[in-house]
Amino acid sequence: MEVPLNPDFPLDPAAPDRTQAAYWVGPRHLAGDDGRLYDTVAETLTGLGWTSLTMVRGRQEPDEAPEDRQVVRSTVLHLSPDTLRWAQWILADEPFLLGDLPVAWHVCARADTASPLAQWSAYFTPDVPGEAVVDFLVALDARERPAEEFGGTELVLDAVTTHGWLLDIDQPRAGAMDATFTSHISYGTVPALIQDADPRTLTDDTETSLDGWQAWAEPVLGARCLWAASFSASVPHDLVAAFARSISSTAPVQRRVLPESTRDRLLRAPVI
Question: Could you tell me which residue ranges the DUF317 domain spans (predicted)?
Answer without folding.
Answer: 80-147, 208-253
